[in-house]
Amino acid sequence: MNQYEYIVAQADEMKDRLTATRRDFHKYAEAGWMEIRTSSLIARKLADMGYEVLVGEQVCKRESRMGVPDEKALDARYETALSQGADPEYAPYMKGGMTGVIGILRCGEGPTVACRFDIDALGVYEDENDSHRPTHEQFASVHNGVMHACGHDGHATIGLGVAKILMGMKENLHGTVKLIFQPAEEGVRGAKAIVDNGNLDGVQYFLASHITDKAEDDPAVVIPGSYGSLATTKYDAFFQGVSAHAGGSPEKGKNVMLAVATAILNLYAIPRHSGGVTRMNVGKVIAGSGRNVIADSASMEIELRGETTEINQFVEDYAKSILESSAKMHGCTCELKLMGSAHSLTSDAVLIDRVRKVCEQDLKLPVAKMDSSKNGGSEDVSYMMNRVQEQGGQATFMRVLTKTSAPGHNRRFDFDESVLPNAVKIFCGVIYDILS
Amino acid sequence: MNQYEYIVAQADEMKDRLTATRRDFHKYAEAGWMEIRTSSLIARKLADMGYEVLVGEQVCKRESRMGVPDEKALDARYETALSQGADPEYAPYMKGGMTGVIGILRCGEGPTVACRFDIDALGVYEDENDSHRPTHEQFASVHNGVMHACGHDGHATIGLGVAKILMGMKENLHGTVKLIFQPAEEGVRGAKAIVDNGNLDGVQYFLASHITDKAEDDPAVVIPGSYGSLATTKYDAFFQGVSAHAGGSPEKGKNVMLAVATAILNLYAIPRHSGGVTRMNVGKVIAGSGRNVIADSASMEIELRGETTEINQFVEDYAKSILESSAKMHGCTCELKLMGSAHSLTSDAVLIDRVRKVCEQDLKLPVAKMDSSKNGGSEDVSYMMNRVQEQGGQATFMRVLTKTSAPGHNRRFDFDESVLPNAVKIFCGVIYDILS
Amino acid sequence: MNQYEYIVAQADEMKDRLTATRRDFHKYAEAGWMEIRTSSLIARKLADMGYEVLVGEQVCKRESRMGVPDEKALDARYETALSQGADPEYAPYMKGGMTGVIGILRCGEGPTVACRFDIDALGVYEDENDSHRPTHEQFASVHNGVMHACGHDGHATIGLGVAKILMGMKENLHGTVKLIFQPAEEGVRGAKAIVDNGNLDGVQYFLASHITDKAEDDPAVVIPGSYGSLATTKYDAFFQGVSAHAGGSPEKGKNVMLAVATAILNLYAIPRHSGGVTRMNVGKVIAGSGRNVIADSASMEIELRGETTEINQFVEDYAKSILESSAKMHGCTCELKLMGSAHSLTSDAVLIDRVRKVCEQDLKLPVAKMDSSKNGGSEDVSYMMNRVQEQGGQATFMRVLTKTSAPGHNRRFDFDESVLPNAVKIFCGVIYDILS
Amino acid sequence: MNQYEYIVAQADEMKDRLTATRRDFHKYAEAGWMEIRTSSLIARKLADMGYEVLVGEQVCKRESRMGVPDEKALDARYETALSQGADPEYAPYMKGGMTGVIGILRCGEGPTVACRFDIDALGVYEDENDSHRPTHEQFASVHNGVMHACGHDGHATIGLGVAKILMGMKENLHGTVKLIFQPAEEGVRGAKAIVDNGNLDGVQYFLASHITDKAEDDPAVVIPGSYGSLATTKYDAFFQGVSAHAGGSPEKGKNVMLAVATAILNLYAIPRHSGGVTRMNVGKVIAGSGRNVIADSASMEIELRGETTEINQFVEDYAKSILESSAKMHGCTCELKLMGSAHSLTSDAVLIDRVRKVCEQDLKLPVAKMDSSKNGGSEDVSYMMNRVQEQGGQATFMRVLTKTSAPGHNRRFDFDESVLPNAVKIFCGVIYDILS
């Protein structure tokens, strides 16, 4: 039995445990920066397997985190997490939104391979209808309005499966493996903080994947690369003006309503870019206090995208100019708070080829005909990939294929759990191929 | 002792009772369409005096009421009102926002004189500091966030004092007196419903007043007329579009954010009017659901004003055109809900002269040098005055003068209660002058 | 015969000469800063009468002039003016838009009285129909598109009549008379330059008038004062951006079209002012070069007004903020060129009373019942009045009444020339009253 | 000598005549719908060769023409064209903008092949510097501001060369050849009128080409297909409102300035489309008449584009909604005049292959490695191609390659005339391949 055969056998053997782990994560779904139970249990398991475990300040740079919930919500989550079985040793490191875990396996000389597994849930109300399998089989989220509707419960599970098998192959690996369990991928809020802490420095190879739907009769289990994910920046804008009685002395006000309206129209009117796709959206506005008062404050949720990081930067610079000038024009101020960001990403062809070869020749797994999927959304794994690539390393973002019951972010999302051992095999196989 | 002397003596004699009544109303302040305790007690007292009493459907035309709170809030108020001493016979008529009372005194042949007394409180948090007299003397509002900060507690009290004295003079009156206790003046929501019910039809004379601050050393007790109150219309606008993923398929949305921004800028850009003052305000906007979703719904609180009813109509027509076209432009719809309205008002010079003469010659009360106050705000008593005037009758809106502790609508508002017997004298004196 | 009788007799006697002079000015109508023939002939006549004459740099401060035509147009006018009988001695001082004349009569000790007579025509095409009296009687403008449609031909004539009579009364005057013949009143471009040159410094009394229509049967010849003229500022705005191919690389442009549209909507949305009337208008826009090019330049004609100088300043400051920010928002620039300005004005009550007394008692001329006319337009005589008033002097802007054939600025405007001797009498009478 | 060799020999032989013809067209450059000299001479030559010639109403459907100059300009061109050697027999058919020619060669049974050659010049001022070859060699445009800066002089010349050779091969062809000399391609104004007249009905094969720059050392003479040309629609919008005095009675106006500003901002804010590229531009606006007048009329030049005809339609529908609602909102009207339009286009792969084979194997001409060029602009040949393709036919739009001295539409544009015989060979070779 060669090492590839070992990987396959081990992964197939752990299938039921993977399913159970995934369902446990699903049931106790935790939103970004709140993954205290999830993170602490991952840390516990990695430690028990023998991994060097990084938590708390070692994972994310505190001030690089974006879109962190308020203290009160974080504290409430902490208390509840403990009552739901969070690991009491590791949980305290995660207080105040310092979630995420990195497991390190050092096997002597050789390159460093890092993998990213994202672990957070979404703000979605899970379907309570019995026809929704998680509800029927009683692993639906116990947290109303928080749901693993994007498969990150599976991603976290895959990471633990990979950890287990690699530890068993330790003697045959030459180099270092970093398994990064990332918080707050939804809203692209977490990856930058991990990169800013230096955790991707010195990494030569990088792998990540996302569970993706496929046709019923498609035998392929993986698309080995991705490109075309849009770079994005997300801001909250806060306008401040001066209130006044709208009938009595309108001239005494500094009316944020005019600033907001001017900003909205001009944001959508940012020029099209000949270099590629752009997007901008003002998704939410709350402005003013009462009918007969000149509005003195407003908040605005903004999302910007560009086909490349440069195009996104063009849009972002223009948007900032619009927001600032719209406010200034009416004697108001506008403060921006960065709520998320991601670069565009492109998998390296040579690593794509390696994944294809390992899967087809070594693991005997069917690979999709296309090398890369085009990803119309945004993914902050791009921060990690870009960091590796700018150091001369290789990175790929794969699609692990399975059947899903509904599109991502839908309240009826679920997936065929056979994807779990398959994904474990692919990660382990490629890592072994690199480090053998 | 002539009848004027009788009035003066009676009013002076009831001073303490007026103060007690005002403080009771103040303590149990009730917002517009919620004045169940207030209305039911007024009805009780009028009935006990011998008045013909109209309540419920007899007062306001149900569908002409504007800005009525939701059923749940109305029901809650009803229950609490009963526990606070609302009259159990009359309260049931007032359920569901059918508040207000009319007391009628028929004294044979002769003209009809109507008086308006408004009875509702405001959405203001009363000052809890002991330096605020109502707090110190323990008649501050027991309802957190509801306060008589505009003197309507005094207005209701004056009406009851007038009722009492007129009943005692019944033999000397020739004609009919209608005492209208109006709900929901704040937000100009109630008067139209009373007019629409025909309660001002056939009225030849109309009197109303508002408590107003004066200089410390000004002996005057009344300004006998008003003009220049702005006509106004208040709308809530509801925009409906279609949501879509802002990154994935922005073209599938119908974006209310664009409609709202277009409407805001154009509303403020409605032309100035050479005929007089105009005002427009978008005081509050809530739009959209999330950062990465094309916004599909929005609400907007709008207030329009004009120096005359015609100018206000110009502004209103223009605003409707803007709102409709802004929505249509983006494939959205915009529905308007009328939340309040008032005409401009002008007191009749001949009735102003009559008030002056009665006060100075008959009641020996000092009158302000100016005939009329300019009223920069809006008052829906204008509906009643206009109805009387368009039938050929005479109407005036007086200012009864006293010292106040803070501007109207302020949480520290209070007034010198000596205004109460003075106002009672003026109303009774003028009514007697007309009906004697 | 007293001096008032002398004035009346003299003015009546010169009636035909006044008419002839007015018609000569009418025929050779000259627009603002182009009044070379008009100015040079006035200077000639004043000099011939014996006045100390100021011309050229002595009248207007060169850099304070607003809305001066281009060099080429000024040169063309100069050449033509000479061929039309401009005075060859004085005309050279007026080259390059340095028009206007001041005649000074010094009569020893005593106060200084200044009078303003505006002399420029308008950009109006005079009616060529024979039913228009100037056409029928052959004194219509020989300059196509330039017409005395606002009566300044009459004003200049009145000034010369006043000059003539005062010189004849020289022995009976004690003080100084300054007769200011102002260029470029249309567009409110000229008065400030005269004030900035110090020509109103030390003036204690100031008189000016405008020919105004009255009812057929109204005997009054003058309204002795004015108030309520709107303060105003007029700007040309020039936007500069960067062009680009609209299809090929729209992101490379800096689009003035977006800046202009943002500015327009926000300018009209400048808040109403509780202190009084405001106005703003974007009367003309020319923007862009071709359909498929991102527009890189635009010009905009703007007019702002306020009921007081302060309110106009509020509007002006706000407008500048809007223009600057609208341009900056899109990476463009916006330069403003001041094209005209006027303050609000208010006649002094004591001088109004003096005019009334002189007219009614001394000159036996009927005066309008109202003291002051409300002037809804703008007048830059306000600069002169304000300068006199801020030094403690008295000023009034009168309406000299007559029948006109059409509203001012209309191509069929003409007036009953009997107003000319009447106005001469009033100016002379009041000046004598002050200086006797 | 086979027929391909005949074609090559003939084309090489006529090289000097092609150059002379091109330079004659260049010198007498005529803008769209004004190509009277050009059209009449083409008709003359086709007739002399023996072609059946269609002119005037036979070519373009009169009412389908877009962006036709005014009558006066057309008449002036007609007169001048005659003086410049226009053919006196054919020119009269072309009066009033009815330019364009179709030459038909019927060779018995067989398919119909149509070719499009566009013939109009641009509104560009040709460089008068002697370093510009047309200036130096004295064939620069004699019409100031009209220049063949896009190579259509060459296209017309190629068409005549093709006509000549095909007539010589008549015996060897089986089917029909239609040579369409199209007016007004610039601004995409002419093709639709030819299609609407039925001239592409029954056509099975369609060829067209454009002269395009290539690298100095690139031996290729043709790119055999194109795709990705943007669909486009061009409108002039005319806004009509009501003027009023901006100071005196602004409320009486219907202000097009507000309508125009609202339209501009919203046009640029039309949503991005997930299906592909969109563009919109307001390239030129002229609005209003004077500073103190509410603007009552405005014109706007608009250009819309979409990556497909459907996406362009989405943009066009949205733009119309914006324009209509922006006007209506302010009581104004907006009329649209269609000034040009084109579909997107895609060459048929099978015809591309055929061109490649004919060039490489039969004509021994090097073909570019890429099958298709992406064309970022717009071309109304798309109307013809779409008509042929929707009938089941095949069409291709080729790029004939040469060296140019400057980008298209530049005042220094010129090209290496060796492209002319090459293009003639390709057209003739492919037509022979089809009809042999």
Can you walk through the features of this model?
By secondary structure, chain A is an alpha/beta fold. Chain A has 2 domains: 3-228 and 344-435, Zn peptidases (Aminopeptidase); 231-342, Alpha-Beta Plaits (2-Layer Sandwich). Helix content of chain A is 35%, strand content 22%. Chain A contains 12 helices and 14 strands. Chain A has helices at 3-13, 15-27, 36-49, 71-83, 133-136, 152-168, 191-196, 256-268, 309-329, 349-363, 381-390, 419-435, and strands spanning 52-55, 101-107, 112-118, 175-182, 205-213, 222-223, 225-229, 231-240, 278-288, 297-306, 333-342, 345-346, 372-374, 394-402. In chain A, the strands form 3 sheets. Chain A has a 7-stranded mixed sheet. The first copy, chain A, has a 4-stranded antiparallel sheet with strand order 9-10-8-11. In chain A, a hairpin with an 8-residue loop joins strand 9 (278-288) and strand 10 (297-306). In chain A, helix 1 (3-13) packs antiparallel against helix 12 (419-435), helix 3 runs parallel beside helix 6 and helix 6 packs across helix 12 (419-435). The longest helix of chain A has 21 residues, at 309-329. Chain A is globular. The two termini of chain A are 15 Å apart. The model of chain A has no long low-confidence stretch (mean pLDDT 95). Chain B binds chain D through residues 248-253, 255, 258, 262, 265-266, 269, 271-275, 294, 314, 321-322, 324-326, 328-331, and chain D through 248-253, 255, 258, 262, 265-266, 269, 271-275, 294, 314, 321-322, 324-326, 328-331.
